[in-house]
Amino acid sequence: MPSMEFMKPLGKGAYGSVDLMRITKPDDGSEPCYHAVKSSYAHDYESLRKEFRILSKLRNCPRIVQTLGSSLERGVDDYGVRVYKMSMEYAAGGSLASFMETRSLRDSMIRDFTLMILQGLVSIHSRGYVHCDLKPENLLLFPRHESFGGGLKSTYELKICDFGMSTKAGEESEFWEFDSPFLGTPLYMSPESVQDGVAERALDLWSLGCVVLEMYTGEGPWPFADSKDLLPELLSGNGPEIPQSLPWEARQFLKTCLARNPDERGSAEELLKHPFLRNVSDDQKKVMVTGAAGSRREPAVVLESKDAKKKPLRVKIIPPKPLQFKKVSHRPLRLKIIPPKPPGCKLIQV
């Protein structure tokens, strides 16, 4: 019988909490695995059951966080109160929101993540659902580590999670109320959704535009802390301001996502063909990470050349700085691996 050990809390929402659990199978001697387990009390059971049902329909779909197991589990908390649990795959990279707290995203990285979100939305929309709460906190990152030139190369896969507020397309959301007309998190809601409370696929595309804007600016899409200040803007059909400093293709993409007329936003499938994503491919979904864990990291540069791997690497010894620059004594030498630059290669910023 597998044993489940609590490791740490991962997050808490309106309808439950998520904890990291270590699963051990003592009989077969295999390595322990880690699950993200969402727990809800009996009064929120229906919400958790609905989310599990939606995720079951999205099983094996690209860019969607996957559930583990064929049903919800029943258990008790530390006080003996009954709880219901849903096991999911664990995203060791955390959420996009926490990812952006420690670094500035380069243009190419933003395009990669945008493409992954759209791929997830295609899966959701094709099965007749609207996510209704697309935001950085509900986008999880799964790191994949590989050795590269004596260093570490990390590629990230982004997946959409938290379907607790999802609604069938064309239906009125159960979360819409006259005094609080929001189908999801207010900052990411579209003008038409707050007016009638009907969940349409175009809402997710508006939310996507807000997320992309936040990836570029590092700030929320609206300068409001209170939803009461935001509501008049949405009821007037206004959208977030798009800075002129953004790349032209990015601005055009955002104008499409944030179009006042929801029909002008098109579909997730159509947005995948937008010029903003034209040069993004699976081979380019790579993010280089350097530096100590938890420190702010600058995206590195990748050499685009088929011959680069065939060339021998050069090793450059970098001695420690003199004491007058930094008061560190007995500092060990650092090795920097410098891959050769083949003729005609191009530097691709990630």
UniProtKB/TrEMBL annotation:
Gene Ontology biological process terms, A to Z: signal transduction
GO molecular function: ATP binding; protein kinase activity
Domain spans labelled Protein kinase: 4-277
InterPro entries, per the entry: Kinase-like_dom_sf (IPR011009), Plant_MAPKKK (IPR052751), Prot_kinase_dom (IPR000719), Ser/Thr_kinase_AS (IPR008271)
SUPFAM superfamilies: Protein kinase-like (PK-like) (SSF56112)
UniProt name for this protein: Mitogen-activated protein kinase kinase kinase 20-like
Species name: Raphanus sativus (Radish)
Taxonomic lineage of the native organism: Eukaryota, Viridiplantae, Streptophyta, Embryophyta, Tracheophyta
Encoding gene per record: LOC108808842
